Amino acid sequence: MFHVFQYQPLRLITQNSLSSMCLKLMLSRPVAFARIWKSWFSSHSLLGKKNIILMGPPGAGKTTVGRIVGQKLDCPVIDIDDDVLETTWNMSVSEKLQDVGYEEFLEEEGKALLKFSASGSVISLSGSNPMHAAGMQHMKKNGIVVYLDVPTRVVMSRLKSKQMDRIVGLSPGISLKDILQFRKQFYKRWFDIRVLCGGDIAAEVVAEKVLDAVKRYQDSELETFISTRSSRSERNTEEDSNKLYFSDIVTQGLALDGGLYVPERGLPKFTAEEWQGLIEATYTERAQVILERCIHPADIPASKLAEIIETAYGENFSCSKIAPVRHLAGNQFLLELFHGPTASFKDFALQLMPHLFAYCIPRSCNYLILVATSGDTGSAVLDGFSRLHDTDKHRIALVNFFPEDGVSPIQKSQMIGCQKENAWSVGVKSDFDFCQTAIKQIFTNSDFTGFLTVEYGTALAAANSINWARLLPQIVYHASAYLDLVHQGIISFGSPVDICIPTGNFGNMLAALYAKMMGIPIRKCICASNENNVLTNFIRTGVYDLRGRKLISTFSPAVDILKASNLERYLHLIANEDGQLVTQLFNQLENQDHFQLQKDLLGKLQQDLVAGWCSDEDCLAAIHSVYSTTGYILDTHTAVAKVVADRLQDRTCPIIISSTAHYSKFAPAILRALRIAEINQNPLSQLHLLSSYSALPPIHWGLLETLKKTGNGDHQVCAADMSALMSHVETLIQNHFM
């Protein structure tokens, strides 16, 4: 039978091996204790009595890789085909398949697995083993399942060269490609770790990747998070019990010192071969591979992450490609990020993040999520959290603060219409910067947050782009856009592209910079601002200056922002994680409304970023010009990016312009750009008028349906006063959780 490693009983641990500090940690933070104990055990034995189980399609190299891994670990190596099946049956696998047929073969193969037992070994499964559920459940009890993920075209090439004839399921009318695609669902169901295997990668290299992946799987201690404002001395003296992991920072949002969380060891890097292995993958497949490397399985297991991603992107997007890339003109391409349920790029994070949040939070506490929005976040976060399971809705509620007079009429109607039993919108008589600053002050008010926890058993969390779980999904679509251009034959992998993004809070831009760090060949990131061009001036001069600046209301309200929160993460990155410097800069911004970068840091910044801005007049002119020449309607934010891209690109490589919202959301401005003389003030009438143009892309029908249901819905309005906002928060908690 299997030898399954189990932790010692509590009484034995306390008597023999743990200090009182460890006992306190085990009782107060059992998850953190388990990780530390598991890390200690892993450092003493990579395998222990567990097996490393290699899984993948025929031709993935499981047998060869298994032998190399076994040699490196000096442990037994077992090939299921040769050492188990053929020994049990006294005949070759191909003979057995021919003798009993496809369905009976799978059953016989599963029975053999159920009788099999091993420990401390490297085991290579057959390509069809994962199709027998009971057999795989039996194997997983004492093993770490490693999926050798080889691109289908590579597998087919290998099998053809080897002339393999024992592929289970292969028959007249069923192609090898169909079989390989069909089996992927089973591989994805069972694996603990994925190892990407490119085209001509050597078996020795794959074996090293397997060992590295197993080490990562067993040692989650390496993947901790720090605040952008923590000093190196603080981090060096921090006790293990105070370390923070993905599941911790998803629920906390903002760091206690006012900074933002970032991974202590940075983001994972993909090799060129690994990226090329994703060229033929679907969007959801790319998302899972990328996010698996960014989220440790101790926080969210790969199988659960796959389930969450499929829930987020499976049926909620109107385009099967999720984030398609469309040629606009010349060397310009549009990354369409508006096919989600609320018609903006925010859907990519906010269809996913609520499920990550619900999985990570403890079941013993209620959570109220605070959100500030300049427009699109509001409806996206309301829609995302409304799709949680009913049991999660009872313990997770949300309040969305937005500038009452600072969003478009359709955006406002959307936010009102998307309110649910656990999610509400509150209009604030101020601008977005006030809303965002107010939320930060609430989070750092320990008296107030402590009162909510003690009095109501409720903790606060953030779902704005300051939350790390909001940023990760955005990295995916920037990487995916590049891979799509390669897949379409526009460029070969390794050729550079520029990216232009309408930028306000810097989250979308930061995600593109992270994609670049992870290995996507992005040359320049172009930051496009409207008349609230503080970021543009900063990127050009190194001076972030809010002195005398007042927010200007424009036709692109989602970037009507003066304080770009996520800029802090980027400055922390280029300052080599100097938390003291970051603290100094942002304290100066808070107290004196300005700061200036050192010359060396400005030089680093300008290697990554260039910037420009666009007036409302130029924005509308661009919408009219593009529609007149192509029949395509840009939304106002995409038009800002288009104008800036035209001015700053050098046309030596393709440029991907992020189309961050559907034009339907900004109908009055679009109709004005199209030079319609009389515009009905009713949002629904405006959308019907736009639909008569038969333009590309078509009208967003999900948005249309939401507006039909909205009518004259109610929402609360609050004065621009901290005490009033805190009172609203407490009242909402009382009404929902009490």
UniProtKB/TrEMBL annotation:
Entry GO terms, CC: cytoplasm
Q: Which PROSITE patterns match?
A: DEHYDRATASE_SER_THR
- Residue positions, PTM N6-(pyridoxal phosphate)lysine: 346
List, for all copies, the residue spans of the domain called Threonine synthase N-terminal: 237-313
InterPro entries named in the record: P-loop_NTPase, Ser/Thr_deHydtase_PyrdxlP-BS, Shikimate/glucono_kinase, Shikimate_kinase/TSH1, Thr_synth_N, Thr_synth_N_sf, Thr_synthase-like, TrpB-like_PALP_sf
For the biological process aspect of GO, one term held by this record is:
amino acid biosynthetic process
UniProt KW Endoplasmic reticulum keyword: no
Pathway note: Amino-acid biosynthesis
Cofactor(s) it depends on: pyridoxal 5'-phosphate
Q: Which domain of life is it from?
A: Eukaryota
Keyword check for Thylakoid, yes or no.
Answer: no
Keywords in alphabetical order, please.
Answer: Amino-acid biosynthesis, Pyridoxal phosphate
Give one GO term, molecular function aspect: pyridoxal phosphate binding
Q: Which family does it belong to?
A: Belongs to the threonine synthase family.
Protein name, as recorded: THNS1 protein
Name of the encoding gene: Thnsl1
